[in-house]
Amino acid sequence: MQIKAVIFDLGGVLIDWNPRYVYSKIFDNEADTEWFLENICTSDWNLSIDAGKPFAQAVRELVALNPEWVKQIEAFHLRWEEMLGGDIPESVEILKKIQTAGYPVLGLTNWSAETFPIAYDRFKFLQTFDGIVVSGAEKIIKPDPAIYKLLLGRYRLNAGNCLFIDDNYHNIAAAAEIGFDTIHFISSGQLLDELQQRDIL
Asked: What is the pTM of this model?
């Protein structure tokens, strides 16, 4: 397999995004924060926003179900930017080395179309990508095979010549089913090792 393009997930691989950066300020202890994120503003609820549901609608619907948590739920939207902890420097350095080696680099991310422009403006390295597919704009989320096929079609790529990097195992498994070479991201050091094993770096 000859790799001709490298596709990155963004959150958890290149960008440190975590709602705990906000809710650790709202709640007095870690247990309350974790309970809230597991039971109210859940991962599945956030994924519905990544899949294209307007933030205001998602908040309104959740508040209707949990009126006692109105301020805490609204904070997920109003204070979303505080959830961006910064880039992951070691991973960004790897990204730059891949680009220097001559590989096209693309992004495939589960992200709200409303908030992605904030990240795009803040993290200048995103502006060096050869293309980025944002789930919220397409109204399809990983691991739906349709979003991988959309990326391949839009950028005229063959899955067999693409390396896909993601920290979510389910997303990796879906990409592998389509024919991508994949790396399940655990750490920047592990990513570098696997890229070196493939003679990409």
From this structure: 0.93
Counting Cβ atoms within 10 Å, is residue 89 exposed (0-12), middle (13-18) or buried (19+)? exposed
86: left (phi over 0), alpha (psi -120 to 50) or beta: left
| Pairing outcome for strands 15-17 and 84-87 | antiparallel
Asked if residue 104 and residue 189 are part of one domain, the reply reads yes
What would the pLDDT profile of 4-48 be if each residue is shown by its tens digit?
Answer: 999 999 999 999 999 999 999 999 999 999 999 999 999 999 999
- pLDDT tens per residue, range 87-113: 999 999 999 999 999 999 999 999 999
Half-sphere exposure of residue 197: CA atoms within 13 angstroms, side-chain side: 9
User: Of 83, 112, 139, which residue is a domain's last?
Assistant: 83
Is the CB of residue 201 less than 8 Å from the CB of residue 96? no
115 and 68 housed in the same domain:
no
Question: Interior CA angle at 83 toward 115 and 7, to 5°?
Answer: 60
Say whether both 169 and 96 belong to one domain. Answer: yes
Range of the domain at 11: 5-16+86-197
* Pair 97, 151 in one domain: yes
| E strands in the chain | 5-8, 15-17, 84-87, 105-109, 131-134, 162-166, 181-184
* Spatial separation of the C-alpha atoms in residues 28 and 20, rounded to whole Å: 12
